[in-house]
C-alpha cells in the first residue's frame, strides 16, 4: 500500500527581481492512500502530476511529510522501495542503457543473483512475453519507438515489482502501439499507477486523480474526474511550470 501523509514538494528558483532564491510550491500539501489495482492521474502539462508519480518510488523526495510503500519510507528506505515499485518513463531512451534488448533485461536481473546463463535465459523468457523474442539481439537503436517502450516495460517488470508507476508511457507512440501498451498494462497483475494524457486509458482505471496547479482537485470516480478535467482544460489558459 502506498501512503502519502502531509506531503509538500517545493523547490528554489531565482527571484527575477534579483532578491535571491525564492521557494516555489510544486505539489501539495496532500494526503493519499493508494490501494486500488488501477489508479490513473491526469492533469495539464505543468500541473504537478509527474512530481506526484516520482514521489511514489523516491525519485522525488518530499520537502515535508512522508511517502511510504508497505511501511517503507522513500526517504530512508529508498533502495527497498525501488525493489517494490518499478518506474517507466515517457521516453524509453531515458532508461534503456545496454546495446541490445537481451543485455538490457539481463542488467535488470542482476539483483536476483543468477549466474550469467540463467540470467540470459530468464531475460529471453521475459522478452518473449512482450513479443520481443526475435529482437533479443537486435541493436536497440534499430527498434521502433513502440518496441523500445515494450523493452523498457520488460526490463522493469522482469524483477516482478509489486507496483508499476508509468509516467505518460504512450505519449510518444502512434495509435497502434499506444493501444498495445495500454492493453498490456491492463492485463498486469501488479498495481499500476498511470500518469497519462490518454483519456480512454484513464477512464478504465478504478480511481482517478486530477491534478491542477499542484493540487488534487478530484479523487474518485473516473467518469466524474474526466468531466472535471475537460472543464479545466476548456477554461484554463496554457501555462508552463510543474510537470
Automatic annotation (TrEMBL):
Residues 2-238 form the ABC transporter domain. PANTHER family: ENERGY-COUPLING FACTOR TRANSPORTER ATP-BINDING PROTEIN ECFA1, HEAVY METAL TRANSPORTER. InterPro entries: AAA+_ATPase, ABC_transporter-like_ATP-bd, ABC_transporter-like_CS, ABC_transpr_CbiO/EcfA_su, ECF_ABC_transporter_ATP-bd, P-loop_NTPase. GO terms for molecular function: ATP binding; ATP hydrolysis activity; ATPase-coupled transmembrane transporter activity. This is Cobalt ABC transporter ATP-binding protein. Belongs to the ABC transporter superfamily. SUPFAM superfamilies: P-loop containing nucleoside triphosphate hydrolases. Keywords: ATP-binding, Nucleotide-binding, Transport. It holds the Pfam family ABC_tran. GO terms for cellular component: ATP-binding cassette (ABC) transporter complex. PROSITE patterns: ABC_TRANSPORTER_1, ABC_TRANSPORTER_2. It comes from the Bacteria. CDD domains: ABC_cobalt_CbiO_domain1.
Amino acid at each position: 500500500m502506498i501512503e502519502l501523509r502531509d506531503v509538500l514538494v517545493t523547490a528554489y528558483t531565482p527571484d527575477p527581481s534579483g532578491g535571491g532564491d525564492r521557494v516555489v510550491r510544486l505539489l501539495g500539501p496532500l494526503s493519499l492512500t493508494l490501494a486500488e489495482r488501477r489508479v490513473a492521474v491526469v492533469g495539464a502539462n505543468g500541473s504537478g502530476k509527474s512530481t506526484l508519480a516520482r514521489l511514489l518510488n523516491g525519485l522525488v523526495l518530499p520537502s515535508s511529510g512522508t511517502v511510504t510503500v508497505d511501511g517503507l519510507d522513500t526517504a530512508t528506505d529508498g533502495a527497498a522501495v525501488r525493489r517494490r515499485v518499478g518506474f517507466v518513463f515517457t521516453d524509453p531512451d531515458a532508461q534503456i542503457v545496454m546495446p541490445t534488448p537481451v543485455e538490457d533485461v539481463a542488467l535488470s536481473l542482476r539483483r536476483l543473483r543468477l549466474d550469467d546463463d540463467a540470467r540470459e535465459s530468464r531475460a529471453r523468457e521475459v522478452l518473449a512475453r512482450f513479443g520481443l523474442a526475435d529482437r533479443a539481439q537486435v541493436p536497440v537503436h534499430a527498434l521502433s519507438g513502440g518496441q523500445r517502450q515494450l523493452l523498457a516495460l520488460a526490463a522493469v517488470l522482469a524483477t516482478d515489482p509489486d507496483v508499476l508507476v508509468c509516467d505518460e508511457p504512450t505519449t510518444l507512440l502512434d495509435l497502434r502501439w499506444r493501444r498495445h501498451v495500454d492493453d498490456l498494462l491492463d492485463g498486469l497483475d501488479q498495481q499500476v499507477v498511470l500518469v497519462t494524457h490518454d483519456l480512454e486509458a484513464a477512464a478504465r482505471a478504478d480511481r482517478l486523480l486530477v491534478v491542477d496547479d499542484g493540487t488534487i482537485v478530484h479523487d474518485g470516480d473516473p467518469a466524474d474526474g474526466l468531466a472535471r478535467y475537460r472543464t479545466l482544460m476548456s477554461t484554463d489558459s496554457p501555462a508552463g511550470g510543474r510537470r
